[in-house]
Specification:
Elements lengths: L9 E3 L6 E7 L9 E6 L3 E6 L4 E7 L6 E7 L2 E9 L3 E6 L6 E7 L9 E4 L3 E6 L6 E5 L4 E6 L10 E7 L8 E6 L3 E6 L4 E7 L7 E5 L4 E5 L4 E7 L5 E8 L5 E6 L5 E6 L3 E6 L4 E7 L5 E6 L10 E5 L4 E4 L6
Antiparallel strand pairs: 1-28, 2-3, 3-4, 4-5, 6-7, 7-8, 8-9, 10-11, 11-12, 12-13, 14-15, 15-16, 16-17, 18-19, 19-20, 20-21, 22-23, 23-24, 24-25, 26-27, 27-28
């Protein structure tokens, strides 16, 4: 049984719109301040100082369209990527207090598929392609498409809904996991543009997924009343691993903490659920929001006891929680 819900450590207010995306940048030494970036349904990005718990900067560049993915360029917190419903991925220069949009990459898909970023010898960005099931990988430095992956036959999988780009320990090519509208998860070899394996995990579209490349296990959620866990065998075949039943249907977001000890989900039932990743043991059901929770994110603080879990909701609030630091 999960423990009773504690109270959040604090919340962030004043956005006046649904919170659709979150991203932390806390891997800094003093006097630098830990930051949280939030993207909202009114096209604004708020940059929050977690020490003062106030918004220090507001970015507006997506023509009032919803922002559903944010990511700093790895440890360079002065460069921020934002993906919006205006079909643009914009790059922001935040150095020395600036708020400059310095680049933009068009997105040809009108869906809600979030990008995924990977640092190899270059910066690779996985993004939805023009056709509904097509996915592409862009080299951010050269702005060239290095891979384009889609079915060679008629599309029976539907739209690409979510993705995770990662680099295996062995093998030169990055691999891309994609969740599709038909409820399946597929694994692609990026450099060979080749489908490696596919598993039907859900009866409904895959809303979100995350993957642990060290344990070769991932998790995915949909509108169903289940959280599905799956694995990769030594032949890179996707296999069903475990199905975690939920009390209420609907998962908007699935995120693993960086230490791969706990997993959090954002629920349509207004709740955040926390699981132990090793055995998928329910640890807590966090209750605070009064509407759908759209997104969850774990902070990357250098000190484990400082690490936080953030959740953004349709109720215009961001809640921040201190959970199970030693789990």
């Amino acid at each position: 049984m999960a423990l009773p819900s504690p109270d959040p450590k604090f919340d962030l207010r004043g956005i006046d719109a649904e919170v659709n995306s979150l991203h932390f940048s806390c891997m800094v030494q003093r006097p630098s301040q830990p930051l949280l970036f939030s993207g909202s349904s009114n096209g604004l990005v708020h940059v929050w100082n977690l020490n003062t718990r106030r918004s220090e900067t507001v970015l507006s560049g997506h023509q009032g369209k919803s922002i559903y993915w944010l990511h700093t360029l790895f440890h360079n917190r002065e460069l921020l990527l934002s993906q919006g419903r205006d079909l643009q991925i914009r790059t922001w220069n935040l150095a020395e207090g600036r708020r400059e949009e310095i680049d933009s990459v068009p997105v040809e898909s009108v869906g809600f598929c979030k990008c995924s970023l990977l640092k190899t010898e270059s910066c690779l960005l996985a993004m939805p392609g023009k056709d509904s099931s097509q996915v592409q990988v862009l080299d951010l430095n050269s702005k060239k498409i290095v891979s384009s992956m889609k079915l060679s036959t008629d599309n029976q999988w539907g739209m690409a809904m979510c993705m995770k780009l990662w680099q295996p320990i062995s093998g030169p090519s990055p691999l891309l996991l994609v969740g599709y509208e038909d409820g399946s998860v597929a694994l692609w070899n990026v450099l060979e543009h080749r489908l490696m394996s596919r598993l039907t995990c859900h009866m409904e579209p895959v809303m979100s997924l995350d993957f642990d490349c060290l344990k070769a296990r991932g998790a995915s959620g949909s509108s169903e009343r289940v959280l599905n866990v799956w694995s990769l065998d030594e032949q890179q075949n996707l296999k069903a691993y475990k199905t975690q039943e939920l009390v209420n249907p609907g998962i908007s977001d699935v995120v693993l903490r960086q230490d791969r000890k706990i997993l959090a989900t954002a629920g349509w039932d207004h709740r955040i659920r926390v699981f132990g990743w090793k055995r998928m043991k329910p640890l807590a059901v966090l209750q605070y929001h009064s509407a759908i929770v759209h997104c969850v994110s774990f902070s990357d603080h250098l000190t484990p006891e400082d690490r936080l879990l953030a959740a953004g909701s349709k109720d215009h609030l961001i809640s921040l929680w201190s959970v199970y630091q030693n789990t």
